[in-house]
Amino acid sequence: MSTAMFGSGIRRREDPRLITGAASYTDDLTLPGMLHAAMLRSPHAHARIGAIDASRAKSARGVVAVYTSADTEGALQPSPCAWLLPDSDLKIAEYPCLAKDTVRYVGEIVAVVVAESRYQAYDALELIDVDYDPLPAAIDLEQAGGPDAPRLHAEIEGNQAFHWTVSGGDVDAAFANADVIVKERILQQRLIPTAMETRSAVASYTRASGELTLWNTTQNPHIVRFLCSLVTGVPEDRLRVVAPEVGGGFGSKIAVYPADFVTVFCAMKLGSPVKWTETRSENYQATTHGRNHVQDVELAATNDGRITGIRATVRAGMGAYLSTAAPGIPTILHGLMLSGVYDIPAIHEEVYGLYTNETPVEAYRGAGRPEATFMLERLVDVLADKLDMDPAEVRRKNFIPKFDDGHDVATGLTYDSGDYEQALDKLLRHADYAGLRAEQEEARQQGRYPGIGLSTYVEICGLGPSQVAGAIGFQGGLWESAIVRFHPSGKVHVFIGASPHGQGEETTFAQIVAAELGVSPEDVKVVHGDTDNTPMGWGTYGSRTTAVGGAALALTARKIREKCKVIAAHLLEAAVEDMEYEDGNFFVKGSPDNGKTIQDIALMANVSWNMPEGVESGLEASTFYDPPNFVFPYGAHLALVEVDAETGQVELKRYIALDDCGPQINPTIVAGQVHGGVVQGIGQALWEEAVYDEDGQLLSGSMLDYALPRADKLPEIEVLSTVTPSPHHPLGVKGIGEAGTIASTAAVYNAVMDALKPLNAPAVDMPFTPERVWRAIQKGKGN
Amino acid sequence: MTIPVSIAINGRRYDREVEPRLLLVHFIRDTLGLTGTKVGCDTSQCGACTVLLDGAAVKSCTCLAVQADGAEITTIEGLADDGGLHPLQESFWNKHGLQCGFCTPGMILAAHEILRTNPDPSDEEIRHGLEGNFCRCTGYQNIVRAVRDAVQEETS
Ligand code: FES
Ligand code: FES
Questions:
Q1: Is the CB of A32 inside 8 Å of chain B's CB atoms?
Q2: Residues in contact with ligand 1 (CB, 6 Å cut-off)
Q3: Per DSSP, which regions of A98-172 are E strands?
Q4: What CATH number has the domain spanning B87-155?
């Protein structure tokens, strides 16, 4: 086995347990004596809580306990927000694990029932009587900050959680001198992440030792341990957090949640293991949502299509409380990306984070970057339209020219490497763009309405240098760790701090070891997810697991290789400088046939009978890798749609994704990430929306009402790539987990608006339901 | 009140006393501890709970355990009879038809149903046949490929 393992689309090592039903997710766990918890959730978006009478519930069959906030007082600290955005007048409202005197969104936890069975626990919820005194709710994002809006938190004026600004260049001059200015109001609707596995927690507490184990559906068990320790008071050395198999996250399993802490509380109080698993309806109400911006954005340009400035005001709805990482999403991960792939000299954005009586908003696949990409990509199309230029041409005119070792943009970031024009060119060639435009012209003559949409994007991921984390108020580090351990037989264990949950790093990481050390990936077992047997790491989000953790692993493997060289030199009675390495074989220059294999050396290092002077026994190494910069994958996507002008129905006919994430360790897995990501972005454009009524009731509260992408509504995604290595990454790789989502919403949106162009239809808010499209077409008829 | 049921799952008979309201999926998962079958929703939308009941696919959250009395059920754990892999399991593995794996047991059994009722489906028919199963990870593309691949394996 050899370096050829890098770049090979081998099938995944994690799959056998998953395709046979042998994998164990949190809810699959059963412990002896385990009890079941169910949460009583507020049916009101905003209400004072009066008396709570749980006496009937307590005496119901099988019920062991009912707790309210009075019981957890002093035992549970508030659920924390851990991204303390600086220079933003950040106001964090206390988020009690169980609501105290007020509920602020439908789904907030008021009480918990613990019973012998899940059915009994849910039955007992109905027997708890709560007096609610309903209050008016702040829902509409455009009014939530106004003087007449109901206030969520007594001490927080104007419901304003933060006000953050990014500025670079002279934006006023850019607009004063502009030949043309285009403006849009964009609604980035609220989305529900909908990981197929709902959230769950199993807590087990041993009173005698004070040890707590929490099995949890999380993307970052080490962060959960850190924060759970703060909230529950269990010291970190007594607290073990395990992310078993996790059924997708998409950002919704980054945060720590009140329900998990309440489950821990129950287990500690009762001395029995307690399991809590949310229903899908609870998941829709209480697991974090994503996006949710109202964006007012304008773009200044010259008559020949050069963008000279961008200016925006964004209202970001945060929900009733600030979730764990929430303040950084519409700011750092959004505003800093406003230059996109373009050379824009002046940028200014103001972001207002607002509390509303809705479910808290967090990262959702892409987290801030889709909202930035959409803004730019939409405006570029509007500009092209205004100047009567081809949208591809306007993009080309503004691209940052090819660079391979750093490019500064006006928001203050330094991109690592990119060749944006090459990406667009390759995409357009593959699509036969000119041909598509000709066909479109012909179709229009026949009264049909096809549309072509482009989206060219760059994103920031591989989060990120820890020093930057500190500077932007992220209350943690952003490095990753890896331990590589060779056993006497030459088999390998890898222990990582990151926590993949579907992304396939058990395979790609085995490939990294195989490529670096010449073992078979079959011989490498990657262990993750258990804080008791993995080194500290900050988790899997922000497309960082391979970008940061993969670097930690590659560097660790190289340390092992260096140690092997020393041992091999000793065994071959040669000088270390004369040693060469190839595909798992260490040999004296010129004599590859008389070398020592890595397996030989692993055996010797472990038995340690004949080691060189001063070299430690064992063959194991570790690395804590803190990246010097973020990585910046990019690409160009094209969507082809057709709109039925009679019904408003949009059909997605073709989708082409070109993504550049640097060298691909496993192209099959990369393509899989692109497919899934693209489809989530398509979902936002065409179908998905979390809808609240004005009283704060979640109308799209189940899978019946929230329209997820389905197999029969999608074409084959055509996947292309270019390869631009990151100059600062040991393997050159960038991230790919979120790229598809970041690009695709804008591509589909632009395609639909392109289709509607001959119909004079005004801009339509996402998602493009047939009704909205039809209404826009009717309006267009009046224009 | 409980009612006796006798249900064969993956070739083994289970005699149990159950509450009349107990859903088949909870009988399988909680009563018997066969956790390969998943629960992804509470409105019969997602298909994660799909099993074969007397050979045909059903969403086991839409059915009571007592309704399955006397039935023969196959779950993902029992799909391959010799402890190896069923051709559909192979093709999901070969074609990268899964990521987090949570939808996968239901998907594989839904795919089984497609091929049971139509041994040589077109891509469109495969996509149509999967409309009752949600996957949030794969965009369905490699699931469709996996089903197609299983057809080709069968016919080659
Ligand atoms: S759990 Fe049965 S369809 Fe969702
Ligand atoms: S593989 Fe994750 S939901 Fe399908």
A1: no
A2: B 39-41, 44-49, 59, 61
A3: 102-103, 109-115, 129-134, 160-168
A4: 1.10.150.120
Q: State the Cα–Cα distance between residues A262 and A201, nearest whole angstrom.
A: 10
Residue A705 above 80 pLDDT? yes
Element (H, E) at A692: none
Assess whether the region A31-135+196-248+253-286 and the region A290-463+629-780 belong to the same CATH fold. no
Inter-chain CB proximity A708 and B94 less than 8 Å: no
> pLDDT tens-digit profile of A82-103?
999 999 999 999 999 999 999 9
pLDDT higher than 60, residue A2: no
pLDDT digits (tens, 9 = 90+) for A454-471: 999 999 999 889 999 999
Nearest ligand to the C-alpha atom of residue A502? 2
Q: Which residues of A touch B2 (CB under 8 A)?
A: none
Nearest bound ligand to the CA of residue B42: 1
Tell me the pairing of strands A35-41 and A274-277. Answer: parallel
Q: Is the pTM of this model over 0.90?
A: yes
Q: How far apart, in whole angstroms, are the C-alpha atoms of residue A229 and residue B30?
A: 31
Q: Which CATH fold topology does A3-20+479-625 show?
A: Aldehyde Oxidoreductase; domain 4 (3.30.365)
Query: A681-692 pLDDT, tens per residue?
Result: 999 999 999 999
Q: In this structure, what token pair is assigned to residue A603?
A: 């055996």
Which CATH number describes the domain made up of A290-463+629-780? 3.30.365.10
**What residue segments make up the domains of chain A, in order of their start?**
3-20+479-625, 31-135+196-248+253-286, 290-463+629-780
* Owner of token pair 């096809």: A450
Cβ contacts of B142 on chain A, cutoff 8 Å:
672, 675
CA nearest to B87 within chain A:
A19
Secondary structure (H, E, C), A19-61: HCCCCCEHHHCCCCCCEEEEEEECCCCCEEEEEEECHHHHCCC
Q: Are residues A769 and A644 in contact, defined by beta-carbon separation less than 8 angstroms?
A: no
For residue range A361-379, list pLDDT tens digits in order.
999 999 999 999 999 999 9
Residue type, A228: C
Cα A684 to Cα A187: distance, rounded to the nearest angstrom: 11
Query: If you measure from the C-alpha of residue B59 to the centroid of ligand 1, how many angstroms do you get, rounded to a whole number?
Result: 6
Longest dimension (CA), chain A: 90
For residue B136, the ligand closest to its alpha carbon is 2
Which residue reads 């952003």 in tokens?
Answer: A478
Single-letter amino acid code for the residue at A328: G
Pair A265, A520: CB distance under 8 Å: no
Residue for token digits 């042998």? A22
Given the candidates 3.30.450.40, 3.10.20.30, 3.50.50.60, 3.30.9.10, the CATH classification of the domain at B3-77 is 3.10.20.30
pLDDT at B81: 81
Tokens of A129: 């009587």
Phi then psi for residue A604, to 5 deg, are: -65, -40
Name the closest-CA residue to atom 1, ligand 1: B39
Please tell me the distance in Å from B49's CA to the nearest CA on chain A: 12
Mean pLDDT over A229-257 rounds to: 97
Q: Structural domain boundaries of chain B?
A: 3-77, 87-155
Q: Give the H/E segment covering residue A654.
A: strand A650-660
State pLDDT tens for residues A628-646. 999 999 999 999 999 999 9
Is the CB of A504 within 6 Å of ligand 2? no
What one-letter code names the amino acid at A775? R
Q: Which residue does chain B place closest to A22, by CA atoms?
A: B36
Handedness of CA A627, A630, A635, A639 (dihedral sign): positive
Q: Search chain A and give the residue with CA nearest B92.
A: A19
What pLDDT score does A5 carry? Answer: 86
Tokens describing residue A676: 């899934």
What band does A1 get if pLDDT is binned at 50, 70 and 90? very low
Token pair 């600062």 in the structure block, residue: A728
Contact B136 A711 (CB under 8 A): no
